[in-house]
Amino acid sequence: MTSSHPWHNRRSFMSAALAAGVMAGPGITGSGIARAQDMSGNQEAAVGMVEPPEDLQIVGEAEVIKVIDGDTVRLSTGQEVRLVGIQAPKLSLGRREVADWPYGNQSREALLFDLINRNVRYGHAGNLMDRHGRGLAHLVRDDGNWVQGWMIANGHARVYSFPDNRLFVRRLQELEIAARAARRGLWALNLYAIRQATDKSIKPYSFFHLIEGQVQATGDARGWRYLNFGPDWKTDFTVAIKADDQRRFRDEWPDWETLVNRQVRVRGWVYYHNGPAIDVTHPEQIEVIG
User: Which of 48, 117, 164, 169 keeps 20 to 30 A from 268, CA to CA?
Assistant: First the structure.
């Protein structure tokens, strides 16, 4: 916990007025979070505690004074922190161009109930800051509960990673599989259900999806690597990996042909280009499942 850490010298935003404004939160109660966790009516019991990864290096500690949404908080140091490795359903937060996603309020409510006015320790899994000036960190509550793991295990968020923040993603994916099987939280909603690669009408577009299917073929064109999930690359689902990103895959798949005929789960933002497609930048976006 050295003073050279870029978060440690920021002035504190904690004032009496701010503290009073966030202590209770907007109507958040214990019964409210229970409703959020059990909203589907057919879920297994919530997960209480998740142990943090043993190799997470803790570099600081602070109090959570504000929960902005289901994956962003503000600490008593004044630093806004994005919970790296997860994505909660988005909230508009006053932005006209962004609509609230289903389960977004429940996700924020869960994080608020779990963290507000509690001390957390934080460590990193890659880059320390994003382009918006937010800190990027894994949080561990004062009682040892890994916040990202808890959010994923209870279905309050999905696994979401970047090429510069990849540690612990595979562990989070294991927790996500269990949450999905138990239909906890957002996994009870069809919007977040896994899509099949054979479905040529994967929608909505411009949305973060999980898609499963068998890789039918792979090829290279103009430096891009493509994984094709159907016989017609002009209409079927495709994964695209640009040349600069392919180096990250060499350890797991030095030969792309080893993925042909394998069943995989791919996650990313779906767009339309000769059928539905996802750009993949790092191996953790692909899970080999069969």
Answer: 48
